[in-house]
Amino acid sequence: MKPDLAVRPSENLRHVRYEIRGGLARRAHELQRMGYEIISLNIGNPGAFGFRTPETMRLAMIENLSDSEGYCHQKGIFPAREAVVMQQQGRGVTGVTADEVFMGNGVSELIDLVLRALINEGDEVLVPSPDYPLWTAAVTLNGGRAVHYPCRPENGFIPDPEEVESLVTPRTRAIVVINPNNPTGAVYSRSVLESLARMAERKGLVVFSDEIYDQMLYDGAEFVPMATIVRDTLCATLSGLSKIYRACGYRVGWAVFSGRVHAATEYLTGLELLSSLRLCSNVPAQWAVQTALGGHQSVRELVSPGGRLYESRKAILTAVQNSRFLKLAPPAGAMYGFVGVDTRDLPDFDDQKFALDLLEQKHVLIAPGVSFNVPYRTHFRVTNLPDSAMLRDVFGRIDELLTSYANAPAGQGKSNVVEAGKRFK
Question: Which domains does the chain have, with CATH numbers?
């Protein structure tokens, strides 16, 4: 009997998904190779829409290239870590030194490392729903179980702290807070963050605060750093250069630990071990951190009235308001809109079918809401990185497709949903 020569993927991948770069994105690449122009709104990638990294950051890298040819310390170069400390201190976070800062190849790598150093098989981590799907995937890949706490559309995607606490079990090790939120753009109030922090302290949970969009705020929204609130448990703040500084390709992120650091010595030693196993993170781009955090914060002009991100967000809000099919909790931060579809006119609406149809028929790539670990199929995410004119065009195409759904013969939508599901697998 001949052996099975098929190379099969790990069973650990069975429950892992990252549709932002999944089947829809692969189909978009196929269409592009066929000559179609695709408007890709599925990823928050500023460089793809003409945003440039500040020139001072590029110069800082160039000037230090001669010091970037060897490995650096596993936690990162000292000037970068010290710059993160200074930022935290400026925000009112006390007791942090460079020893509590870990530089990584983007926040993405650090999400995996901080979870891998913490959780054992079967441990639970509270993750928001909708979430940035890497958090759920990293919990799963490291043998844990992601327990999703709802951030409901009808509540502006803000979690109910009492409901979150009801999900805690003896196996719960940590809670993930994404603020400002991706994909919804929700910005949590101080009172909500206080309640989550006190709950984490009572239950002995590590707080992982994903703050990659910390300065991307609109219309007076206030960002409250979680590390200024968490005192009696360990808090890890994760951020980086990708979004605020439009430097996704630099792959520079950091995790800084505060709160009850003295009770986490073994955990942080384990995290340093994991950091050592990958030797170090990208050295040249780390030289841009000090310049970025200490220099002019140009993102403030972009998110103020008249700024490109502000005006693009305004174009999305206007388009939704003018549509008979769409609804949206206005995003107070980040660079996305998590748009809902009113199913009173479209009872058979399915976000995955819609995303596929929009790509095939209108050549627009979006991320269906189900990609973000929600139990409903009525939302989709777009980024507000394109200029206002492009977004008006995109939402015109969206409304055309939704109108064709509304005018379709009764029952046709359900059969199309089934067929789309088959094609998507």
Answer: 11-51+301-424 (3.90.1150.10), 55-294 (3.40.640.10)
